[in-house]
């Protein structure tokens, strides 16, 4: 861990939320010279086809930046903005749409960390005069070489970070590594931060709290098809396979003996296959194949690993059956529910994050 005396200045990425605000406070309290940077990654505007939809996103960055200004003024630290709107659109949002069109369920927050926050942002921050390190309000930990799980396992965000470049870790600080969320809020209230009780952001960052389906329909036309049971019984019609994900329950409005759960998306025939059995074996998988492999350590993954296929999932042990630079096959020790193509498979060994891949198929 870098010490305050080792550097001239630390840039802390601030989002307007309580976590990054307390991260900035901790750094200032520990003697660091802190510069706060607010990233503007999304603005409502034209989509890749040049069509502006009528449904704005839920990303209200102006209010978030107002919270950053208030906290920084209270801490008496300088603040500025970095604009990555164009980079975000090309490297995150366009990929998000491409994956949806291919029938997969992407995780743009993982891609944002990989391409923007721990790539473009860090490069730009470290290019500033006298800046030696970058900090964020993520719940994660590093010893300068390894990416590790934090104290607060319930808020552990290493799943979203497992695809960042290991080369940046010596220059990254995670001030919240040894704090719980409750402790962070307690500090914010004690210091009378205006965002001490601000709700945590949820969902996809550029969509916010608005209707996901309405937002996505602006960018991808409806392509109706049949909703069927495994025996071929037609229950209704869907508006496009890109609007559904494996294991989904909500939003399948077809009546009958529900609730229904998405089992599979048949891209060839544009069918959405569902079940009304919550314990249907087809909802869980024992094997997972991933591509786009990324490693945070030298060499191959060990034979025995712990895995996560979604945020806040309890890690599941498994065996690496096959691996290469482009392919990974893991057999779980127990069935895992809704292993979804397009989502990430994160690989762990104890507290250490080893890397992972993007799920291509599961059975």
UniProtKB/TrEMBL annotation:
The annotated region (Interaction with tRNA) lies at 155-157, 310-311
Reactions listed under catalytic activity: S-sulfanyl-L-cysteinyl-[protein] + uridine(34) in tRNA + AH2 + ATP = 2-thiouridine(34) in tRNA + L-cysteinyl-[protein] + A + AMP + diphosphate + H(+)
Q: Which GO terms describe its molecular function?
A: ATP binding; tRNA binding; tRNA-uridine 2-sulfurtransferase activity
What does the record list as GO biological process?
Answer: tRNA wobble position uridine thiolation
Q: Which residues form the active site?
A: 112 (nucleophile), 205 (cysteine persulfide intermediate)
Could you tell me the EC number(s) of this protein?
A: 2.8.1.13
Rhodanese domain boundaries: 10-51
Question: What keywords tag this UniProt record?
Answer: ATP-binding, Cytoplasm, Disulfide bond, Nucleotide-binding, RNA-binding, Transferase, tRNA processing, tRNA-binding
Instruction: Write out the residues that bind ATP.
Output: 13-20, 39, 137
Q: Note the site residues: Interaction with tRNA.
A: 138, 343
Q: Which InterPro entries match?
A: MnmA-like (IPR004506), MnmA-like_C (IPR046885), MnmA-like_central (IPR046884), MnmA-like_central_sf (IPR023382), Rhodanese-like_dom (IPR001763), Rossmann-like_a/b/a_fold (IPR014729)
Question: Where is this chain's protein located in or outside the cell?
Answer: Cytoplasm
GO terms under cellular component: cytoplasm
Predominant localisation class: cytoplasm
Entry-linked PROSITE patterns: RHODANESE_3
Recorded hits in CDD domains, A to Z, give: MnmA_TRMU-like
Per the record, which residues fall in region Interaction with target base in tRNA? 107-109
Q: What does this protein do?
A: Catalyzes the 2-thiolation of uridine at the wobble position (U34) of tRNA, leading to the formation of s(2)U34.
Q: Which PANTHER family match?
A: MITOCHONDRIAL TRNA-SPECIFIC 2-THIOURIDYLASE 1, TRNA 5-METHYLAMINOMETHYL-2-THIOURIDYLATE -METHYLTRANSFERASE
Question: What NCBIfam families has UniProt attached to this entry?
Answer: PRK00143.1, trmU
Q: Which family does it belong to?
A: Belongs to the MnmA/TRMU family.
* Name of the protein this chain belongs to: tRNA-specific 2-thiouridylase MnmA
Q: What is the species listed in this Swiss-Prot or TrEMBL entry? A: Candidatus Kerfeldbacteria bacterium CG15_BIG_FIL_POST_REV_8_21_14_020_45_12
The gene it comes from is mnmA
């Amino acid at each position: 861990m870098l010490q305050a005396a080792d550097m001239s200045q630390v840039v802390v990425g601030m989002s307007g939320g309580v976590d990054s605000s307390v991260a900035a406070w901790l750094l200032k309290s520990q003697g660091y010279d802190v510069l706060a940077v607010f990233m503007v990654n999304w603005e409502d505007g034209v989509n890749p086809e040049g069509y502006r939809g009528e449904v704005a996103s839920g990303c209200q960055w102006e209010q978030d930046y107002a919270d950053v200004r208030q906290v920084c003024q209270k801490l008496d630290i300088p603040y500025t903005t970095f604009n990555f709107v164009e980079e975000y659109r090309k490297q995150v949002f366009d990929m998000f749409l491409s994956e949806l069109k291919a029938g997969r369920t992407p995780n743009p927050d993982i891609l944002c960390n990989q391409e923007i926050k721990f790539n473009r942002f860090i490069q730009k921050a470290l290019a500033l005069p006298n800046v030696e390190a970058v900090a964020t309000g993520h719940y994660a930990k590093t010893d300068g070489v390894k990416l590790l799980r934090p104290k607060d396992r319930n808020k552990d965000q290493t799943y979203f970070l497992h695809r960042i470049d290991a080369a940046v870790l010596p220059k990254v600080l995670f001030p919240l590594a040894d704090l719980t969320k409750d402790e962070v809020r307690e500090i914010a209230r004690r210091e009378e931060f205006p965002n001490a009780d601000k709700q945590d952001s949820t969902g996809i960052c550029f969509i916010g709290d608005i209707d996901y389906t309405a937002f996505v329909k602006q960018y991808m036309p409806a392509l109706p098809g049949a909703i069927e049971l495994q025996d071929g019984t037609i229950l209704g019609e869907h508006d496009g396979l890109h609007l559904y994900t494996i294991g989904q329950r909500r939003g399948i409005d077809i009546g009958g003996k529900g609730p229904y759960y998405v089992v599979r998306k048949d891209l060839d025939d544009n069918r959405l296959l569902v079940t009304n059995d919550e314990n249907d074996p087809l909802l869980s998988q024992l094997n997972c194949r991933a591509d786009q492999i990324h490693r945070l350590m030298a060499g191959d993954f060990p034979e025995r690993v712990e895995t996560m296929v979604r945020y806040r999932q309890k890690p599941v042990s498994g065996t690496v059956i096959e691996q290469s630079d482009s392919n990974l096959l893991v057999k779980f020790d127990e069935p895992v529910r809704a292993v979804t193509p397009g989502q990430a498979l994160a690989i762990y060994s104890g507290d250490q994050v080893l890397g992972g891949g993007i799920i291509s198929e599961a059975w």
